[in-house]
Amino acid sequence: MRIGHLLLASGVVASTACASQPIVIDGYFDDWASIDPIVIDTIGDANPDTPDLLSLSVAKDSERLYMLLELDRETLQQEAPAGATGIGNSIKLHIDGDGDPATGMNDGFGSEIQVEFGSRTLTLWSDGEAISPTFAQADFASVPTHSSTKFEFSTPFTSTLEGETISLITSDSPRIFLTSENSGDRLPDEGAAVAGSSSQFNNKISPVGLSKDSETDIRLLSFNVLRDKPATEPEPFVRILQATQPDIIAFQELYDMTAEEALTFVADALPLPEGESWVSAKNVDNITVSRFPILENANVGGNLVSYIDLPDDRSPHELVLFNAHTPCCANNDGRDAEHDEISFTWKTLLEGTGPFPINPDDAMITTGDFNMVGFVRQRETIQDGVFINSAAYGPNFSPNRALGSLGTVSYRHTHTPVAFTWFSSGSSFYPGVLDWTFYTSDVMTLRNRYGLFTPTIPQDVLDEAGLLPDDSLASDHLPLIADFDLLKGVKPKGLLVF
User: Fold this and answer.
1) Which of 83, 121, 266, 392 is the most buried (most CB within 10 A)?
2) Which among 248, 249, 363, 246 has a CA at the least distance from the CA of 316?
3) Mean pLDDT of the region 103-121
């Protein structure tokens, strides 16, 4: 697969690059490594108190346009400059989808698509008028949802809104530019970047199967089920459990359902062989249900940590499972505190001073709805062991022991090149990655994994799995599946502190 020459309106030609892997809009940027930027901007030409637009990379296939924007500083993409974090933006994206400035919006450019990131406004040109659907309705994806210096986003060539198909990108050479309203920066400085027809490449992805790669893998389902929906609308949740067949389930937002009721719900949907039984534990709205014995449980700042006895034929280790639901929205202080406490609890468990004793080489998974819509430091404190409040929690540590940072799971959807975990068609917020899974990759290997988004799964696959097209819309969070092989890990020694 090959990215051809990407031309700038000013006549600059970017080098030809080879796309070695498909682009997936998931917040991990390794898949862009072989794609040269279409525009590299002058450094320092923006207001020094605002984000500086540095570069834009573009790729496209037969259905979608993919873009990667790099800035000079940590920025929260979905927040305006006056927002609570102080790292919002006024960046605006213009796309002339037909390559003709005489058609489209009256902005002197002829845009068919305009995106105002900080104010979360999408404007499309359709049949001579501007319309403003939500990002979810228009199938626009952008990540990461937490703060970053890089953001990748994707828009389809056509969107279907209320049954009507709208053509947005019809030219082989759509024109693109970005502005930062409060800084005066522009990318490119003059004219527009042109994604030429030779930039088209095959971004076809292989479908992800719903089943495990091996029966000895441990399958984890993490699922925010939207305020006790399994109790009030059980049918889609039963179908999801039966289609995915998890071994361990980390539910969030089961406020009213008891641990015993959740156990019964799972046991009725997934009966176990004679002699086996499901067990459960609850703290606040987090309920963990496991087909393996739960030896210990503890409260971690309103979140749940359990010690699970894995069978010897599947693992030489036991499993420490953190089931988390940390504060929502603009409550960055609350997230800071809870993420610090989760990470510190894992540190104390490794040191032998935690809420219950474990073996020093046991496996650990931290999973759940982390509402990761604020500072990236909230991800780093769990993944990297870097405490936000070091005065309270002491030295940083290595959560993955000799390997340093924990592994993370990208929950790519089974049939599309996106990986959002939260979706609400009526919200101004983009479909985003709010849910995360971190794991000790020193003693476990990540195998099959996916986010189950049934609206984009082919009907024959749904039929075979016993699913309906709207099943994953029963909650605003997707069912997230990750399989782990604990039979091939290496047992490290000791705890690194730095």
Assistant:
1) 266
2) 363
3) 95
